[in-house]
Amino acid sequence: MSVVLIAEDEQGALELISEVVEQLGHQVLRTRDGEEALVLARAHTPALIISDYMMPRRSGLSLLRELRQDPSSPLAQIPFLLMSAAQPKGAEAANLFLTKPVQIEEMERAIRKLLDSRTVPEAVKGLPGTGPVSSPSQPDTHLRDELLNWVAHEIRTPLNAARMSAELVLRRTPNDDEIEKRIKLIVRQLDHMERLLRSILEAARLADGKIEVQPESHDLAEFVQGTVTLWRELQPGYQLEFTSPQDPLVVRMDPQRIRQILDNLLSNAVKYGLPSKRIVIEIGSSPAFVSVKVIDFGPGIPASEIPRLFDRFYQVERSGRGHGLGLYISASLARLHGGTLSAASVLGQGSTFTLMLPRRS
Ligand code: ADP
Predict the structure, then answer these.
(1) How far is CA 300 from each of CA 235, 276, 283, rounded to the nearest angstrom?
(2) Whole-model pTM?
(3) Which of 272, 305, 354 for a ligand 1 pocket mutation test, highest count of atoms within 8 Å of Cβ?
């Protein structure tokens, strides 16, 4: 049994993390205040510190810096698990960084790992779906950034706590199909809200030109095929057909971002292509461009709607299945690659979305 210090300002999240740590058989010291966390760490030298980033009086990072100030002190050796909705600058100083919302199993794995291999530094995990910021905030966007980040934090913390609670209830009520069904629905809704929050933040950063792509050379056809294979596993009820020319088609692309575009197009084809469950993914090339077409055989989109599809928050129908940011983000990411994203559709026959990327010169 080890002593674990947990610093988290949100009461619900604090209780849940404590429960997870106690269930792993450890003793918990808890606080909702960064300054008090420092006092407790000095008094007890815990085996592990789990800390939120935003806390009253002292942030998680400031706590970490204070503890690491004197490298010869035992306090400097305490493994530090930092958790936050967005990865703050300097987070790499922590042994491990987890992006909220954190799933219980992910947290359990992190705790075990850090307690087993004290002091071995871990690579910092990036915030999924975000890229490096290209320049400091412009004065006119500074306040909005601050507000958005504040809202994201304030919403994410209770969302995270609610999700973890739901997972714990699910674990404790085995063999009850009705409860299981309802809790899974709650988790899906909470995940939907989390995705929406992430998309809003990302759309704002894209609109401000604050996202940069990090291009590497890749064979696009091979990359797309990998994504299609994953989607076949994810959606076994669908028929995903992939066609591509034989030759390698090398492009400069940021794999994480291209994956994001493909995921959006494939998820739209799955959602909006019904009742047809056939989706064709076609790679093509011209001297200047390489293209990926995602074709579905669903009801299609009226011609008058096509020009607005890539606008922020635009939805042809408010079906509750999406939030109207996916195509805006995807088209912006395509442009950052020097490419384009376009749509064509015939009512009653289906839709084709085409991503074009410049060929490597
Ligand atoms: P979301 O799916 O989250 O609403 P998107 O920006 O990805 O956001 O899509 C915007 C809208 O475009 C969707 O709400 C839907 O009405 C329409 N749409 C997107 N893809 C398709 C498709 N393959 N077939 C028919 N409609 C589509």
Answers:
(1) 21, 11, 21
(2) 0.66
(3) 272
